[in-house]
Specification:
This protein has about 300 residues and is an alpha/beta fold. The protein has two domains: about 230 residues, Rossmann fold; about 70 residues. Helices cover about 35% and strands about 20% of the residues. The longest helix has about 30 residues. The mean pLDDT is about 85.
């Protein structure tokens, strides 16, 4: 994939909004060719920079907001840094779940904030190629705060919207998916996460002697859906008029996301738009090789299962 990016002279710009911890593992194979920019105002889990050997990397200790008139935002620092947000937790809705304590607000701070459009312009980034948003309830409005041109240039988008009202006024999955599907993206990956739905007082009443009631609940009660991790890729139809380099980068992103079928679609669409050349032949060959590897893995797994079952 790095070789393909070199052939097309592509240098992906990868933006991570909510950048606590490490950068997304899916980006590591192309890190050496990419620019990484991370934003997060909560420094409790914010590293000095991502590991993985990025061509260029930058961490900005600033909040990203969807409000173009806001110079700062109120940031709710919760007991778990992963639950901190610019939205207040919905205590009533969360009280039905055993992990509500993680959302307990320890303090509120004012954080300098700008829209993503303003931050990208200030940093001198020409565009964003892949955007990851994990902002605890504001992913859709962050995406929509980008100008029309930058939204049109975006090729991949990772969001983590809620399925329940963990925050007051948050962007839920249903609205997020509907908007993205109407504006040139298709859902490539969806992983649902959740928590045990049981009130803390119910656990205390049922297990008065237990030490870690939450751990006991996790071991014995099925989790209910609470939020999801979703990945969207740009549709071919929305690439009308785009340069051949954009097709090449979308092709690489499809391979990174283990979507060799869509990568083959991109390669053939490239040929239709620009004509067959050495680049299109290489893309077609790489896509077919990825499909073949998948078939080989499936065959080996089937053979292993057959042997295990006798």
């Amino acid at each position: 994939m790095r070789e393909l990016l070199r052939l097309f002279d592509c240098a992906p710009v990868l933006v991570d909004v909510g950048a606590s911890g490490e950068s997304p593992p899916v980006w590591r194979p192309i890190a050496a060719a990419s620019t990484y920019v991370g934003f997060d105002p909560d420094r409790r889990e914010l590293s000095d920079g991502p590991s993985g050997g990025y061509r260029r990397s930058l961490i900005v200790n600033e909040a990203v907001t969807g409000d173009p008139d806001a110079a700062d935002v109120r940031f709710y620092l919760t007991r778990s840094p992963a639950c901190s947000s610019t939205l207040p937790p919905d205590r009533e809705a969360l009280s039905n779940y055993h992990y509500a304590g993680l959302f307990e607000v320890e303090r509120e701070v004012a954080a300098r904030a700008s829209t993503l459009e303003a931050l990208v312009a200030r940093l001198g980034l020409a565009r964003i190629d892949w955007l990851k948003c994990d902002t605890q309830g504001t992913d859709l409005r962050i995406y929509r705060s980008l100008g029309e041109r930058r939204r049109g240039e975006l090729l991949a988008l990772d969001v983590e919207p809620g399925l329940i009202d963990a925050y007051r006024g948050e962007d839920l999955f249903a609205d997020t998916h509907q908007h993205l599907a109407r504006h040139g993206f298709w859902l490539s990956r969806l992983q649902v996460h959740g928590a045990v739905r049981v009130r803390a007082e119910s656990l205390r009443a049922a297990f008065p002697e237990a030490g870690d009631r939450a751990a006991a609940a996790e071991r014995s009660i099925r989790r209910s859906p609470g939020w999801c991790e979703a990945r969207y890729l740009r549709t071919l139809e929305s690439l009308d008029g785009a340069a051949r380099e954009r097709h090449a980068m979308l092709f690489v992103f499809a391979l990174l996301d283990a979507q060799p079928g869509f990568a083959l679609d991109v390669a053939l669409d490239y040929e239709r738009r620009f004509g067959a050349d050495a680049w299109s032949a290489r893309m077609r060959a790489e896509a077919l090789a990825a499909v073949a590897r998948g078939r080989g893995l499936a065959a080996r797994a089937k053979d292993w299962l057959r042997r295990r079952l006798g």
